[in-house]
Specification:
By secondary structure, the chain is an alpha/beta fold. It contains 20 helices and 16 strands. Helices cover 46% and strands 15% of the residues. The strands form two sheets. Strands 1-8-7-3-4-5-6-2 form an eight-stranded mixed beta sheet. Strands 9-10-11-12-13-14-15-16 form an eight-stranded parallel beta barrel, surrounded by four helices. Helix 1 packs antiparallel against helix 3 and helix 13 crosses helix 14. The chain is globular, with a radius of gyration of 27 Å. The N and C termini lie far apart (61 Å). It binds phosphoenolpyruvate (PEP) and magnesium ion. The site of phosphoenolpyruvate (PEP) has 10 residues, from strand 10 and helix 17. Magnesium ion binds next to helix 17.
Length: 544
């Protein structure tokens, strides 16, 4: 049998299926005469629950980092929430009931309230309030949470998993998990990603229990879940898994390490992507963020202009999957070699120097504003920044900022939440380099597109194979430009990065560091190689 699900993390797992049975929490309503003592019992259970959460926080901090560990701090705060405490203690006193019953009922009531809210984030918190109530009940009943996972490592099947259940799973016993419920924005999904195990949610498996003990395959790349696969499928996936593991082994060693030179100079290493599907690779590569999301691929994949909703869905997904790490989305860079029929662009003599990127966007304002709206709406779900391609003048940046102001005013009026994003531009034309001192006053960051900058500076069509041997990104003119942009950006407080292919050129890593670049954005598979290079450099020593 093969089922479809929503992947929250890529990878292949093959193993025995084990159904995660929550302990049946029988909470009986019991009449209490000494309600003050019962309220006291609730308070001490609350204290004990907070102690447990502190331990869980510490554990998560080490295993999955601060951003993801924060959920346990949030749970602790929820346990101190006066509305919650009052609701439980009032119920104990007024209805003369036991603390377990009051906590369970309050948990259900609050969860119901959160689920009915419009704000998606708040809806997600329904699971959290149930989680804290269950924790208190466990303490009151003196029982431990969750399932003891014995024996061989298995693929866990569950209706849903609370964040605290997820982090308490013994990682050496869990190959993957598959849940019927859950959302990509839940902390459980976030934890799965950082646990680095394939995981699927939203798998429509009617009777979980019937799968117990059977053989299963989780394909976190394709969002597929097999129960009792046939021999051919099994051997195909075994091979795929072996290949995966070999790649992983090579990468593992440098994961979690800083991008820091021997003498302590640090730099951000972000990844370049073309679409949502690349995010799993980014996370697996241990990149600090996404430095370039080429949004035009969304347009190139479509038969017609992707709607605001389609774009919003894609940007939001990337932002959520990156779990708070920076995601820099570049607005549409269509034209030249990137053509889509439905744009109806005229054939040009010299397309690289023609009608492309921001030039089209500033002409077709409705289309551009649709993208800006989708971007601003997505900004609410993570740390998103926006970047504009092919800039040649301050006037263009000012025009863009006017459109941004219009979009924000619309969203305000419609009461759609968004965050104020960092605004950056690509420096990929010689003009932008030469006026980078002026441009720096207008934006928060620069990212140098060395691919186009090389073509425009050296007057060499990057598409023309005949000129390949002349296309030299190490040309002194390019290197001087890089330095100039870094200096001009820094003078005005902009951070400056490189997102063209040159960023991954390890023969220049030292040069970039010496020039003071703040960020390099490279293809995911290069992250660890560049990190390796950085960690071996000593800028204190004279360069040879
Ligand atoms: C560049 O020009 O260097 C760049 C990163 O953009 P693209 O390659 O998509 O033109
Ligand atoms: Mg470019």
């Amino acid at each position: 049998m093969v089922l479809e699900g929503k992947s929250v993390f890529g990878g292949i797992a093959i193993g025995k299926l084990s159904v995660y049975g929550k302990k049946d929490r029988q909470v009986k309503r019991i009449k209490i005469s000494d309600t003050e003592a019962e309220a006291e019992r609730f308070h001490s259970a609350r204290e004990k629950a907070k102690e447990q959460l502190t331990v869980l926080y510490e554990k998560a901090l080490k295993e999955v980092g601060e951003v993801n560990a924060m959920i346990f701090e949030v749970h602790k705060m929820m346990l101190d929430d006066l509305d919650y405490i009052e609701s439980v203690t009032n119920m104990i006193r007024s209805q003369e009931v036991n603390a377990e019953f009051a906590a369970a009922t309050t948990g259900d009531n609050f969860a119901g309230m959160f689920s009915a809210m419009e704000d998606e984030y708040m809806r997600e918190r329904a699971a959290d309030v149930r989680d804290i109530s269950n924790r208190i009940i466990s303490v009151l009943q003196g029982t431990a949470e969750g399932k003891e996972l014995g024996g061989e490592p298995s693929i866990l099947l569950a209706e849903d998993l609370a964040p605290s259940e997820t982090v308490q799973l013994d990682k050496s016993k869990v190959l993957s998990f598959v849940t019927k419920k859950g959302s990509a924005n839940s902390h459980t999904a976030i934890l799965a990603r950082t646990m680095n195990i394939p995981a699927l949610i939203g798998v429509d498996l009617e009777k979980l229990e019937e799968a117990e003990g059977k053989l299963g395959i989780v394909d976190g790349y394709e969002g597929k879940f097999y129960i009792e696969p046939d021999g051919e499928t099994l051997s195909r996936y075994k091979k795929r898994k072996e290949e995966d593991e070999q790649k992983k082994r090579l990468l593992q060693e440098l994961k979690g390490k800083e991008n820091v030179t021997l003498d302590g100079k640090k730099i951000e290493l972000y990844a370049n992507i073309g679409g949502v599907a690349d995010v799993a690779n980014v996370l697996a590569s241990d990149a600090g963020g996404i430095g370039l999301f080429r949004s035009e691929f969304l347009f190139l994949e479509s038969e017609d202009y992707p709607s605001e909703e389609t774009q919003f869905g894609a940007y939001k997904k990337v932002a959520e999957n990156m779990a708070g790490k920076k995601v820099i989305i570049r607005t549409l860079d269509i034209g030249a070699d990137k053509q889509a029929d439905y744009f109806g662009l005229e054939k040009e003599e010299n397309p690289a120097m023609g009608y492309r990127a921001i030039r089209i966007c500033l002409d077709r304002k409705d289309m551009f504003k649709t993208q800006l709206r989708a971007l601003y709406r997505a900004s609410y779900y993570g740390t998103v920044a926006v970047m504009f391609p092919m800039i040649i003048s301050v006037r263009e940046v000012k025009q863009i900022k006017e459109l941004i102001a219009e979009v924000k005013a619309e969203l305000d009026q419609e009461k759609i939440p968004y965050k104020d994003m960092e605004i950056g531009i690509m420096i990929e034309t010689p003009a932008a380099v030469m006026i980078s001192d002026l441009l720096a006053k207008e934006v928060d960051f620069f990212s140098i597109g060395t691919n186009d900058l090389t073509q425009y500076t050296l007057a060499i069509d990057r598409q023309n194979p005949k000129l390949d041997n002349l296309y030299d990104s190490h040309h002194e003119a390019i290197l001087r430009m890089l330095k100039m942009v870094a200096d001009n950006g820094h003078k005005e407080g902009c951070w400056v990065g490189v997102c063209g292919e040159l960023g991954a050129d390890t023969t220049l890593t030292e040069t970039f560091l010496r020039m003071g670049f703040d960020e390099l954005s490279v293809t995911p598979s290069m992250i660890l190689k560049v990190r390796d290079k950085i960690r071996k450099l000593d800028l204190g020593k004279c360069s040879g």
